[in-house]
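call fold(seq) -> tokens
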Amino acid sequence: MTHSPDEASHLGIYLYCLAKPDCLAVVKGLADQGVHGIDERYPISSLEQNGLVAVIGEVDAGEFHDRNLQALSWVGPRACRHEALVERIMRASPVMPVKFGTIFQTITSLHGLLARHRETIARCLDTLQGKAEWSVKGYLDDTVARRSVAAADPAIQAKLAARSASPGARYFQQKLVDAMIDSALRTWIARLTGDVQEALETHAVEATALKLLSGTATGRPERMIFNGGYLVSEAALPSFHAAVAEQAAAHRADGVTLDVRGPWPPYNFCPDLSAAEPHAGG
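ret:
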């Protein structure tokens, strides 16, 4: 939900997540401690309806205009507070997280959403009971990987051995070898990422492939070649981590690093209620 910068400020109902009544004591405790959410001027609270709980807080809806929403300096700290609060709630109840910036103009409109989607929300929370999302990202040191791929390919080794002593001819022969390594590396990466995905999803309730991130986004020198999200039950967590460790050890010498993080709120395993709403956040 966005507003133009010159729109008059007014209070809106900010939705953090949906949960079960198990979380009510946590929400009350946080509110009693003076814990605030997105807008530091207003405490968090909850709305219970037919066995569902919406974790909410008031915000100045007029601040959620396009200029602010496109400014990392404005979004960053608020998104972190949003995430931290949802993670606190997740300790007491399964949660159905919602997108940052989901605002309702009135409490009545939020009541309406809970009524319209009660079965979907309840079914989702039941499915998520005792589970959390984990991410596994794979990074590749291209220099190490290219050396490894070349060493394992007889055709590439033959081309390397047959290079001319003449600088001019050797230059063009090396370009051909580089192209062969590029092709072999693409094939190797596709096979490796498929093997990793297959090994890990065996221990997950659900799995999904996520967008590969740039070096600017990751802050790492290695190239990201794998990004998976996994919904893992508490019971399967030891075997999931063991599978990650096994895959990491198997491919470490080839320049691959696996980074596992979690537990996270299950953003990638929840239905998008806004898609079914005529005016999302209204």
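The domain at 132-267 is CATH 3.30.70 (Alpha-Beta Plaits).
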